[in-house]
């Protein structure tokens, strides 16, 4: 019996009763148990111990299938038709036939090539909207839960400022984890000075929890902006 998924597969948690419902991650470990397999996903374990729930059985996760990008045309590989088509021009199908491709962007030409030839050229894909930056996507605790695929409603009763900050920082870091063995890399954090919050960095471990460090000064400044209440509660305690 072979496992349904393999290590590295991108999957989504579909179990409705899981705190990781809709969580998207990669399969990290596959464990055979009697006549079935269970799967650990990246981000659902910390220091070798499970977080909240897991591992997941096959019926609890599904494979993320990358949607094929739409081809809008093909690049001309060399000058053609006495220079009417230049190398690098993009040709596309204008109307629904099996063979006619024409230069796009208003440079109409009656010249055409068979479809089976054009489809061997370099394809040009439809442009897709670029994803928003992490600064746009995460502006609250709820946004951070959404970014990590956590069920916000299931954990909305978390009142501990440290736990909230850990979730926010993890979302802001986008899978970055501070390497404390690397003394040359900066780990940014928020510190308390009399009457104000400041941004600072360290090269080695500090009294702050490791999970409250972020990968850049800009993210630390953003953390103050979106989680000032939680930061003040943390330092006051």
Average pLDDT for all residues: 81
Helix run count: 7
Main beta-sheet annotation: 5 strands, antiparallel
Order of helices and strands: EEEEEEEEEEHEHHHHEEHH
Q: Could you characterize what this model shows?
A:
This protein has 237 residues and is an alpha+beta fold. The chain folds into 3 domains: 10-63, no CATH class; 70-127; 134-236, no CATH class. Helix content is 22%, strand content 24%. It contains 7 helices and 13 strands. The chain has helices at residues 115-118, 134-137, 141-148, 152-155, 161-173, 217-226, 228-236; strands spanning 10-13, 24-33, 36-41, 45-46, 49-50, 56-57, 61-63, 71-75, 90-92, 102-103, 123-125, 187-193, 196-202. The strands form 4 sheets. Strands 6-3-2-1-7 form a 5-stranded antiparallel β-sheet, with no helix packed on it. Strands 10-9-8-11 form a 4-stranded antiparallel β-sheet, with no helix packed on it. Strands 4-5 form a two-stranded antiparallel sheet. Mean pLDDT is 81; it is low at 102-106.
Summarize this structure briefly:
By secondary structure, the protein is of the alpha+beta class.
Helices and strands in order:
Elements: E1 10-13, E2 24-33, E3 36-41, E4 45-46, E5 49-50, E6 56-57, E7 61-63, E8 71-75, E9 90-92, E10 102-103, H1 115-118, E11 123-125, H2 134-137, H3 141-148, H4 152-155, H5 161-173, E12 187-193, E13 196-202, H6 217-226, H7 228-236
Antiparallel strand pairs: 1-2, 1-7, 2-3, 3-6, 4-5, 8-9, 8-11, 9-10, 12-13
């Amino acid at each position: 019996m072979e496992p349904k998924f393999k290590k590295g597969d991108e999957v989504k948690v579909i179990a409705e009763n899981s705190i990781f419902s809709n969580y998207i991650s990669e399969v990290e470990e596959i464990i055979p148990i009697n006549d079935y397999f269970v799967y650990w996903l990246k981000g659902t374990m910390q220091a070798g111990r499970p977080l909240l729930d897991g591992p997941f059985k096959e019926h609890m996760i599904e494979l993320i299938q990358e949607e094929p990008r739409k081809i809008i045309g093909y690049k001309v590989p060399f000058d053609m038709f006495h220079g009417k088509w230049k190398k690098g021009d993009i040709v596309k199908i204008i109307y629904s036939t099996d063979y006619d491709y024409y230069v796009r962007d208003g440079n109409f030409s009656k010249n055409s090539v068979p479809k089976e030839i054009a489809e061997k050229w370099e394809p040009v894909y439809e442009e897709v909207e670029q994803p928003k930056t992490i600064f746009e996507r995460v502006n609250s605790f709820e946004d951070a839960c959404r970014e990590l695929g956590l069920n916000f409603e299931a954990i909305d009763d978390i009142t501990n400022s440290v736990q909230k900050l850990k979730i926010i920082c993890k979302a802001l870091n986008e899978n970055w984890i501070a390497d404390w063995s690397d003394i040359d890399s900066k780990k940014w954090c928020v510190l308390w000075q009399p009457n104000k919050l400041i941004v600072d960095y360290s090269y080695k471990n500090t009294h702050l929890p490791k999970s409250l460090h972020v990968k850049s000064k800009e993210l630390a400044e953003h953390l103050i902006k979106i989680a000032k209440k939680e930061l003040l509660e943390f330092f006051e305690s």
